[in-house]
């Protein structure tokens, strides 16, 4: 059977590693990719209760590492860990890093970043965004979301519209992990010579990854932490720009109609809370509309027990139904101006 549309597939296996080489792939094939009308990222979009969501973009992200060492500081152990009995007279790089990290957020509200200028370029929700948020607030299954995430409470027990606005329009500064010294079984009496913390910031329009790292650097310097290094994982693409597609785009409206044809009324998100390299397709030079959509259920992304439901049940569709949906979706696209 002949397909009703022309398809170009872009598949890459480095997403969890930062998609380091995808940008090169796109740059090398701009001429070919520019012939496309839109981009679709297939995905299992049903939650555990079977409700369908689709997102029209994503937050950006920049990831980096802070390193505090006695060698750079000129204080504390400078070459190797020493016996902890000297902690009374030798300073600790680990405590110095902890104090530096603590200076970046408000103790009364750890989601509030105190880095000067951190929120300067944050764009407020558009009228289109607020319309989508209001519709989401009426139907968002917060209990299902808590269950999937394994959390008992959201921030300050927000719910509904307030919860969505906080989630979607808050730039984050998250500590992925902290390590230094001995972390094995039982104890080891050492005073470490170095400590590191891996951080990330989730960005929204119109923030940039570059300005975020620069503001962190200035904050550290102004608070006396000029010795703490920022490692940016050069060449690993540990940064993605934010991406947005208008809800008025043809591909969005056609996808919503396809969902309805299958008996679903999708929850349409202005963008997802996570990040992916969508911007490589939605911004210069391609400037294509990009959405994520599909039926079926999967969860625990990036975890060792990430899963996808194959058979389906009375609540969520299985792989066979997902395949049928994509066939129908392509037929809808064939009669639509997708841009």
From TrEMBL:
<protein>
    <recommendedName>
        <fullName>Peptidase M20 dimerisation domain-containing protein</fullName>
    </recommendedName>
</protein>
<dbReference type="GO" id="GO:0009014">
    <property type="term" value="F:succinyl-diaminopimelate desuccinylase activity"/>
</dbReference>
<keyword id="KW-0479">Metal-binding</keyword>
<dbReference type="GO" id="GO:0009089">
    <property type="term" value="P:lysine biosynthetic process via diaminopimelate"/>
</dbReference>
<dbReference type="GO" id="GO:0046872">
    <property type="term" value="F:metal ion binding"/>
</dbReference>
<dbReference type="GO" id="GO:0006508">
    <property type="term" value="P:proteolysis"/>
</dbReference>
<dbReference type="InterPro" id="IPR051458">
    <property type="entry name" value="Cyt/Met_Dipeptidase"/>
</dbReference>
<keyword id="KW-0645">Protease</keyword>
<dbReference type="GO" id="GO:0005829">
    <property type="term" value="C:cytosol"/>
</dbReference>
<keyword id="KW-0378">Hydrolase</keyword>
<feature type="domain" description="Peptidase M20 dimerisation">
    <location>
        <begin position="79"/>
        <end position="225"/>
    </location>
</feature>
<dbReference type="Pfam" id="PF07687">
    <property type="entry name" value="M20_dimer"/>
</dbReference>
<dbReference type="GO" id="GO:0008233">
    <property type="term" value="F:peptidase activity"/>
</dbReference>
<dbReference type="InterPro" id="IPR011650">
    <property type="entry name" value="Peptidase_M20_dimer"/>
</dbReference>
């Amino acid at each position: 059977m002949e397909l009703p549309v022309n398809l170009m597939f872009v598949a890459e296996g480095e997403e969890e590693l930062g998609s380091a080489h995808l940008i090169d792939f796109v740059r090398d094939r701009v001429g070919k990719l520019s012939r496309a009308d839109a981009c679709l990222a297939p995905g299992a979009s049903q939650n555990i209760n079977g409700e369908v969501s689709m997102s029209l973009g994503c937050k950006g992200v920049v990831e980096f590492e802070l390193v505090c060492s006695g060698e750079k500081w000129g204080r504390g152990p400078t070459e190797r860990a020493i016996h902890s009995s000297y902690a009374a007279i030798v300073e600790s790089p680990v405590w110095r890093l902890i104090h530096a990290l603590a200076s970046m957020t408000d103790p009364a509200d750890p989601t509030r970043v105190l880095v000067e200028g951190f929120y300067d370029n944050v764009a407020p929700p558009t009228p289109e965004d607020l319309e989508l948020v209001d519709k989401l607030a009426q139907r968002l299954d917060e209990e299902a979301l808590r269950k999937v995430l394994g959390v008992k409470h959201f921030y300050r027990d927000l719910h509904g519209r307030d919860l969505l606005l906080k989630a979607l329009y808050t730039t984050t500064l998250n500590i992925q992990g902290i390590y230094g010294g001995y972390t094995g079984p039982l104890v080891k009496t050492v005073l470490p010579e170095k400590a590191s913390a891996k951080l990330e910031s989730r960005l929204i329009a119109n923030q940039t990854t570059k300005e975020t790292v620069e503001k962190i650097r200035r904050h550290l310097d102004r608070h006396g932490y000029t010795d703490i290094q920022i490692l940016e994982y050069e060449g690993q693409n540990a940064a993605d720009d934010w991406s947005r597609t208008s809800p008025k785009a043809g591909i969005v409206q056609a996808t919503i109609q396809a969902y309805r044809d299958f008996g679903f009324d999708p929850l349409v998100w202005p963008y997802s809370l996570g990040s992916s390299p969508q911007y490589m397709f939605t911004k210069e030079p391609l400037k294509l509309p990009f959405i994520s959509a599909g039926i079926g259920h999967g969860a625990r992304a990036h975890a060792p027990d990430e899963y996808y439901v194959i058979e389906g049940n009375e609540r969520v569709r299985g792989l066979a139904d997902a395949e049928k949906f994509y066939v129908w979706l392509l037929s809808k696209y064939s009669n639509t101006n997708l841009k």
